[in-house]
Structure formats: C-alpha cells, structure tokens
From TrEMBL:
It comes from the Bacteria. This is GMP synthase [glutamine-hydrolyzing]. The keyword Iron does not apply. Catalyzes the synthesis of GMP from XMP. Residues 2-192 form the GMPS ATP-PPase domain. It catalyses: XMP + L-glutamine + ATP + H2O = GMP + L-glutamate + AMP + diphosphate + 2 H(+). The chain holds residues 193 to 509 of 509 of the full protein. ATP binds at S29, G30, G31, V32, D33, S34, S35. Pathway: Purine metabolism; GMP biosynthesis; GMP from XMP (L-Gln route): step 1/1. Homodimer. Its EC number is 6.3.5.2. The lineage of its organism: Bacteria, Pseudomonadati, Bacteroidota, Bacteroidia, Bacteroidales. GO terms for molecular function: GMP synthase (glutamine-hydrolyzing) activity. Keywords: ATP-binding, Glutamine amidotransferase, GMP biosynthesis, Ligase, Nucleotide-binding, Purine biosynthesis. It is an enzyme of class 6 (ligase).
Amino acid sequence: DWSPESFVDATVRELREKLGDDKVVLGLSGGVDSSVAAILLHRAIGKNLYCIFVDTGLLRKNEFTDVLASYRHMGLNVKGVQAGEKFLGDLRGVTDPEAKRKIIGRDFIEVFNAEAKAIENVQWLAQGTIYPDVIESMSVNGPSATIKSHHNVGGLPEEMHLRIVEPLRLLFKDEVRRVGRTLGIDPLILERHPFPGPGLGIRILGEVTPERVAVLQEADRIYMDALKEWGLYDKVWQAGTILLPVKSVGVMGDERTYESCVALRAVTSTDGMTADWVHLPYDFLARVSNDIINRVRGINRVVYDISSKPPATIEWE
Ligand code: XMP
C-alpha cells in the first residue's frame, strides 16, 4: 500500500545506496516538484546536494529573495544566482512568444551549466520530474514539446557526464504534495499555483523591458495578495496578471492619461490541459481593479479574462 511515509523511508534508503558519497546538483524553481525532490535528496545525502536557484529577472515580486530564504531555512545548500540582466538583455526587442521562450530556455541552461561546472566532481543531476512529465516527454511532437522545453536541462555539457536521478518519477502531483507534507515542507510552497518557467516573460505581451517587468510585478502582487486575503487563492488552480500591448485613454483629475492595461486571469483545472475561468466575486474584482489603478503608475485600466480552455490557453502567449 502506498503511503507518503513509506515512500519517504524507502526512497531515502534507495538514494543513499545509489548515491553514496557522490555529489548531486539540482535546479530549484520555487515550485512544488523541485522543492520536494530537493528535500528528499537532502534527507538522504545532506550537504552533498548542491542546489541552484536562478533569478531570471522574470519572477514574481520579491520571489527570489523570499523563496531563497525559505530554502535556506529548510537547511538546503542552495546558491542563488541573480542573472536578470542577462535574460532581460537578451530579450531586448523580442516580441514573438516562441522566440522569447527559446531565449529564456537557452539562457537558463547557460547560467545553470556555468554553476554546475563550478561544483568540483559533481556526478549527478537531480530533477523534479513527475509521472505526468514522463508521459508527456514520450508523446512525440506534442505542443508540450515546446511548452516545457526550458525544463530540459538536456543541454548540459557532454564532458560533465552527469547521471540523472529523478526521485519523484513515479508520482502524481497530489502524491508529491503529500510527500512534501510528510517531509514538513512549508504549506506555502506546497500549495503554490503553477508558474511557467519563462515566468513574466510570457505574461508581458510585446517587448519585455525592465520597466514593464516592474509594472507587472506591482500589479500582480496586488492581485495575489488580495486572492490570499479574501481566501480565494486555494480555490483557484492558477492565477496571473498579464500586461497587454495596448494603451487606452483615461482621466485623472483634469488630465487625460494614455496608459497601459492589465488583464487578470484565474482558472480552475486538474492538469492544465483544460481549464475554466473562475467566477471571482464582483466585489473582489472591483477592489483589485481600484487598488491596481490607484497604486500602480502606468496602468489606467484592468480587465478580467472570461475565456475557458479550450480554445483559449491559460497563458496569453
Ligand atoms: P497553456 O497556456 O498552454 O498552459 O494553457 C498550460 C499550463 O502550462 C504552463 N505553461 C508553461 N510552463 N513553460 C512552463 O514551464 C512554458 O513555456 C509554459 N507555457 C505554459 C501554464 O502556466 C499552465 O499552467
């Protein structure tokens, strides 16, 4: 019979046997899977697990600092790498969604590789791959081949000869969360909404500039905080804020403004393949809209996305 406790016991034992005194490198994303994989490995091999957490400059507001602190708090040996300038520099002038994904994926691999190479005698690459990822990677040429492309650390230099270890390979998402709870991982990490690897880069329609990232981070922060305050965060499978490539006219006092617009998105789903937009309360939407327009400079209009998937995807890009 499967139970999270027996899974943890058996896996920790197996990992110890398999890895011995070897060193293992793992990329943390802030998400559930990589966090649970890291804590399991940490139980098994302690300081021989080297974690790398890359700030792409496209994370949510304060995410890098907060998540890094909570990883350290859990005792992980984690290196935070601030690479935002590289990503934003390479994204300059790029507006095509797939081109953005490619650049972000390539930069991620470059940054990760450089860090992995700096670990002397590292022999293993650990990944938070779960069962649905395994299935997905077996389907040839599905749209997900591009969707998750950046997750593939397949670009690791050959000369490193890293062997792969994937302790969550046979688990479904809910099992991963149960294992995480058994391991005592902060519920705030375990209950987090999914967040795409390319991050805010694909929630900024049009060019990704540092200024536009900052504007979106502010608006998104207000929306996320309000979802939590109103007890709605856990009722939603995924929520996000999208900065649109349009400006519209507004008034402020006697002044005419001509500023940006954000769209709010919230969906329910089980696996992200299909999704329904959430009927968030009007009072809630009114509050968030007011707060964003009053507090975020550069935004004078907020809209709510009432499209379900299919045909509308969850992300706008
Ligand atoms: P869509 O927009 O295809 O999204 O309905 C389905 C789920 O996948 C996430 N998503 C991504 N995740 N890299 C990722 O790691 C990507 O390029 C990417 N694009 C979409 C999306 O956030 C949703 O959970």
